[in-house]
Design goal:
By secondary structure, the chain is an all-alpha fold. It has helices at about 1-25, 30-55, 60-80, 90-100, 105-145, 160-165, 170-180, 190-210, 220-245, 250-260, 270-275, 280-305. The chain is globular, with a radius of gyration of 18 Å.
Length: about 300
């Protein structure tokens, strides 16, 4: 347990620092918006390319890990769709609860894998992310198209599938996978550049997570927040533990799977909710509470279920 805390505590320390910086030295969105855009569009993709391209794709072991991760997401999503009417939520609120239950914070996942398992863990979770990012986007976009608000103020007319296809995380994951499968070495100067850029992405990404926390909205959305938090921070790690046993994953892969499943939801879920007719206020509340709770639940899940 102490080793897990030592690896994960700095992650939430950086999130807390980001929250503090937003409220003291850098309160203006004019600072944080460009930082977030740089991290999301340049630094983070560099980390994914470098990690995935150099990963060892060990055939059936890699496929079992990916299948287990996607199976956990699919199981939680299917449960929520089956219980949609019983949950007593309107359409936009349901889409935000769904996103809050199946999406994951990639910054925390990568930083946690690196802290717990080093470069091997970083490469392994990067492969999981490469498969899971388009999968959760497809489920989220389907739900938003089926149950999201349709008034002009709540949803912007966009083609969601084009947005998914040009998402920098998906594009960079695809590039990394192609290089790994083709066994094409990255030139030394390019590898060094990617490494330097990637190292900056984790620190800046975690700071922006903290800066984006909106704690005040939690109290107004307790029902939806509670459902999403229970699904994401309790049911998903338990499902990952069961999936790791079912797919007979190696110890490190099992730990990576539980770490992945125990993540709080992604901060980018708010953008999707706002653009495609979800409940933006509920989504912000889910992100805030899950990120705060994960400081307690994530170490426990990884220590006792991995």
């Amino acid at each position: 347990m102490s080793a897990v805390l030592a690896a994960i505590a700095p992650i939430f320390g950086l999130i807390a620092l980001g929250w503090l910086l937003k409220r003291t030295l850098f309160p203006s969105p004019d600072f944080w918006v460009p930082v977030e855009k740089l991290t999301y569009s340049v630094l983070f993709p560099a980390l994914l390319i470098a990690s995935i391209a150099t990963a060892r794709l060990e055939g059936s072991a890699t496929l079992r890990l990916i299948a287990a991760a996607l199976g956990v997401i699919a199981a939680i999503a299917a449960l929520l769709f089956l219980l949609r009417r019983a949950l007593g939520l309107d359409g936009p609120a349901f889409t935000s609860v769904l996103q809050g239950s199946i999406r994951f914070n990639t910054y925390i996942a990568l930083a946690g894998a690196a802290g717990l398992y080093g470069t091997r863990g970083l490469a392994e979770i990067a492969i999981v992310l490469a498969a899971a990012i388009p999968f959760v986007n497809a489920i989220s976009i389907y739900a938003l198209s089926a149950y999201g608000a349709r008034d002009e103020d709540a949803a912007v007319a966009v083609n969601p599938w084009i947005e998914v296809a040009r998402n920098p995380l998906i594009v960079s994951s695809a590039v990394g996978l192609l290089l790994a499968v083709a066994d094409v070495p990255i030139p030394a100067f390019a590898s060094a550049m990617l490494d330097i850029l990637g190292r900056g992405s984790l620190a800046l990404g975690l700071l922006t997570v903290g800066a984006g926390l909106v704690v005040g909205s939690i109290g107004r959305q307790l029902r939806g927040v509670a459902i999403a938090s229970l699904a994401k921070l309790a049911l998903a790690p338990l499902a990952a533990f069961a999936a790791a046993r079912f797919f007979d994953l190696a110890p490190m892969s099992a730990g990576i799977l539980v770490l992945f499943a125990a993540q709080p939801t992604a901060t980018t879920a708010y953008i999707l909710a706002r653009r495609l007719g979800g409940n933006g206020e509920l989504m912000a509340a889910i992100i805030a509470l899950q990120t705060l709770l994960a400081a307690l639940t994530l170490p426990l899940a990884v220590a006792y279920l991995m």
